[in-house]
Amino acid sequence: MATGKKTNNLPFLLEKKEVVLVKPAKPTPSEVLSFSSLDNDPNLEVICHSIYVYRAKSFSSIKGDHHDLVSLSGKTHDLEFSSDPVTVISDALSRALVYYYPLAGKLKRDSDGELRLNCNSSGVPFLSASANCELSSLDYLDGVAVEVAEPLVFDWPADDDGSHPLLLQVTKFSCGGFTVGMGLSHSVCDGTGAAQFYRAMAELATGKTEPSVKPVWERERLVGKPTKTSFQNPIDKSSLATSPHLPFAELEHGCFNVNRETIKRLKTSLMKECGDEFTTVEALSAYVWRSRFRALQFNSDGKTVFSLAVGSRGRLDPPLPDGYYGNAFTDAVVTIMGKDLNEGPLSWVCKLIKESKKIACSSDYLWNSINMNIKMEMDDAMLILTDWRQMGFVEEVDFGWKGPVNMIPVPWRMFGYVCMCTFISPSTLDPAMKGGLRVLVSFPATAMAKFKEEMDALVNLGDDKALS
């Protein structure tokens, strides 16, 4: 049964069908899997949502790119049937679950405090929906209001057996384009692992008989050795800065475009200031960190914290196998006094971030974090940055309609979203943004204007005030 829903804030009517459970196309192992020490972090026990936007495909291009598609029943769909994204993606999901069968199970934290995944082939909640508007009227979700994007993903309640680690929604639009809304447990996959699974679905949808990268569970590889000391929070929260804007009554989400030329000018200004070169992440994250501090008007005699997620694949000793899709990252952390961030040279902040990244990239650093069971509690004075550009979320995810023209995370459903900042690639529909990125943040409504003012200053780096 389809249901229609329209609110004052939603510029289209959305019809949703009943949720179905998509199961693996073939029998899969029945077992209970345990997790790594990183996976077991309570901060990661959340479903992270993202939305992928695909343009309509003309009949001629469908004909030229035709692939035989094997359904759950083993039959091959004809051209007309396989041009339906709901059919293509649900079938690809079913086939991908043969390899990623844990994602069709149930996730639960047991009485001993450890997460476990019951691989019982219960299936993945799958929702098909239709919107009575064209994607172009929503700018392909580029900079769209959170309230507009929200109905394109969904949540599914847990029961006594646990929760589903994966949710999928396909929404078709009147123009022939569609969106794929994916919700995935951060306890089960990190960003790189999520991208690996999403690419596998796309490969199976476009004619491959198996994923090019076979998934590997093996979470025991990152289980720490118990120590006598467990650090719940390495930072003294009483020393952290506070903001008059927090707690907040109203929250706003912002998406700020930073083009390639702006990034280049920022790097050039920093190099003139200190003589060192910095990466885009080092330069822009320092600027965003300071801009956030100023917008929230933190007290200068308190401390502020910057944390950057740094991937550990390829850096561990012994190395993780190809196809490992669990959490494999650590945090590069910088803690400084608010006055030093607000008034000191920005290049000095960049150097601190650069050095923290170098330390966090070592295998010893990760193993020390695991063995000492370091858990960092969220705090308003923290900025937690994640760079999604290098995770492969957009590349090689062609279900037969070419790659997505846009991809956005759904910030309000993520942990600590007021502390979160995400760098993502720009929409492919804006040539002027090629080589640039988008900065996603959430602020109290009373502070967003000041943050926008700080970000607008990036376009005027010739003015000495821009880096002061």
Task: Describe the protein's architecture and organization.
The longest helix is centred in the middle third of the chain and has 16 residues. Helix 7 packs across helix 9 and helix 7 packs across helix 11. A hairpin with a 5-residue loop joins strand 6 and strand 7. The strands form 3 sheets. Strands 1, 2, 3, 5, 8, 9, 10 and 15 form an 8-stranded mixed beta sheet that branches. A 6-stranded mixed beta sheet has the order 11-17-16-14-12-13. It has a 3-stranded antiparallel beta sheet with strand order 4-7-6, with no helix packed on it. It is of the alpha+beta class and 468 residues long. It is built from 11 helices and 17 strands. It is 25% helix and 22% strand. The N and C termini lie far apart (59 Å).
Secondary structure layout plus pairing:
Elements: E1 3-5, E2 14-16, E3 20-22, E4 31-34, E5 47-54, H1 59-64, H2 79-82, H3 85-99, E6 106-109, E7 115-119, E8 124-131, H4 146-149, E9 166-173, E10 178-185, H5 191-205, E11 251-258, H6 260-274, H7 280-295, E12 303-311, E13 329-337, H8 338-343, H9 346-360, H10 363-371, E14 382-387, E15 406-409, E16 420-424, E17 437-444, H11 445-456
Parallel strand pairs: 8-9, 12-14, 14-16
Antiparallel strand pairs: 1-2, 2-8, 3-8, 4-7, 5-10, 5-15, 6-7, 9-10, 11-17, 12-13, 16-17
Helix pairs in contact: 3-5, 7-9, 7-11
